[in-house]
TrEMBL record, chains A, B:
Descriptive protein name: LacI family DNA-binding transcriptional regulator
Segments forming domain HTH lacI-type: 6-60
Any GO MF annotation of the entry: transcription cis-regulatory region binding
Cross-referenced PROSITE patterns: HTH_LACI_1 (PS00356), HTH_LACI_2 (PS50932)
Keyword Cell inner membrane: no
Recorded superkingdom: Bacteria
Amino acid sequence: MDKKEITIYDIAQEAGVSPATVSRVLTKNAAVSPAKREAVEGLIRKYKFRPNAMARSLSDTKTKILGLLVADIRNPYYAALSVACEEAANQQGYTVMLCNALSDNRLEDSNLEKMYEQRVDAVIQIGCRADDLVSDSAYAAHVNRISRTIPFITTGKLDGTDCYRLNIDDVASMRMIFEYLTSLGHRRIALLGGQKKIQSTYDKWQQYIYLMGKYELTFHEAYLQEGDYSEKAGYRCMLELLELKKPPTAVIAVNDFTAVGALKAAAEKGVQVPRDISIISFDNTFLSEISTPKLTSVDYNYAAFGQRLIEIAVKAIQNQKIPKEQLVTPTLVIRDSCTQAQER
Amino acid sequence: MDKKEITIYDIAQEAGVSPATVSRVLTKNAAVSPAKREAVEGLIRKYKFRPNAMARSLSDTKTKILGLLVADIRNPYYAALSVACEEAANQQGYTVMLCNALSDNRLEDSNLEKMYEQRVDAVIQIGCRADDLVSDSAYAAHVNRISRTIPFITTGKLDGTDCYRLNIDDVASMRMIFEYLTSLGHRRIALLGGQKKIQSTYDKWQQYIYLMGKYELTFHEAYLQEGDYSEKAGYRCMLELLELKKPPTAVIAVNDFTAVGALKAAAEKGVQVPRDISIISFDNTFLSEISTPKLTSVDYNYAAFGQRLIEIAVKAIQNQKIPKEQLVTPTLVIRDSCTQAQER
DNA sequence: ATGAAAGCGCTAACAC
DNA sequence: GTGTTAGCGCTTTCAT
């Protein structure tokens, strides 16, 4: 717990070279004669020397750290995407600094400050206030202040700001779902959970209504059950749906949590899924896989999603020209929660 | 995306004071006359100046960063504990640097290196190789090399190393479970999932066997179903148990995932939980809350657990004297998955 | 209370 | 190729 840190000066001295030479073998940015290189490398191994990242960053003004601000890592969706980002970042030689917003605006702000103090090379924001349909202007200002200095990437909306956006194509998801459900003969389709004030949910609602029309299905106000994103909300909304005189034959849950809640409500009411009612969800987290029955769910290919996020960040850091807005195309993973519509 | 960074020199100049004075108002480590302090603070606000954390760390050799190495943040147990740590760390003025080991030893090692390069003030390790019953000696050496310089805290075993341990009291958990189950009249109790090579599981097994004796229950080899920690394993092991001529009336699942798998197996076999068989689990993650039925589970009070971890780290950093080994006492959260044993 | 100056450990011109 | 030197932005003696 003491033992002073070894530096490039120590290495240089013992190797009989200058600190610059040691630095050169460390960064590989310049040629060094094989003899000296080996001498230095030997000592590095001998002392298990690791350069001080602080000093390095201070000197070259690049930290090789990417700030990752997520809503709540305890949510499997964010966890999946975060890990994907961490892996992709590692591959590109970057480290991730992960912070949770936890629905606390002050925390979110202070974490943003922290990232800035840490001089991260870019910040990637997933979830949090960036998802709001109407962006808080004070927040937008905060983001803009940061995005003037470093690239800012979001999976949300954040309008009024100058940042890169990589959004899930919710419209395409909904289209896919309708194609699938109608192909199974469903005509009474409900949409469960989510809040209109969240951009992605808003888009889903719009598209849901549009598609109901397009497929000539009769739109029922009661089939649109607003809730939040929790299992509890899914449970509650599903009960409402089941109590309707004409309950839907298929329900689209806004995420896996609400789908699990819906499953619980159905089980309690003696309604079998998928025999009596089909359920389909968004996100395809591990919950889809472990629920009973397993959920048919919209997947975003987290590995690729994370990679693209990191790729945008890295290119932006390098000042490469990249589009400000991009989409990730979802995919439908078919499991056991949907089946042919039954006449009832 | 350009705009040069503002520094304490800029602030000092405009305020007509020396950089040292600006530093003093920043750190609050020394007295500054009210007039100058206000002038400086005004400019800090005006420019929204944030000191460069790299420079600061370089200078005072404290980064105020805690390295958090976890097995896999996608696992709700680790997610819960990590968030608790992050919150506690924030409260103490520390930032957390979170890395996943992902069951990849090379990744784990390189993440440890990364933390060292980043000169974190301490590393806290949760899960990963630290959990192994018999610690890998090369790994122990690696840890020791680090723990000579900075405090190392683990929730695992890691013997042969000099680090602080905060372990869950698995023996107490098991005792609690037995008290509860036997009070419900259960005498045929199985233990499902987990691998003996993992310390905490090994301890659970030992205690299980001991308690079977103590309560004068007949120990059945087949009631000890080794598996891993996945839902799949829980499912498979539960099927085995249900096929026994004398199946258990209660099963203790090693964690929530295996319990969920067991639930699924039971449902499939038409065995009702808890009417026909009781299930109890460890970890009390959100899965216990959303499963059907809700699981009775052993809880660790994540908030307090995380706080203690951080507290140990912080005290160790300050060279305060603290015990090398401590325990966290679990608690039983009773929900709907256990009931009175039925004669069958 | 305040300023000057040294130094934290490294990188990157700049000479040779 | 290699060494010398000047920072990177901050904190902290040490004087005053």
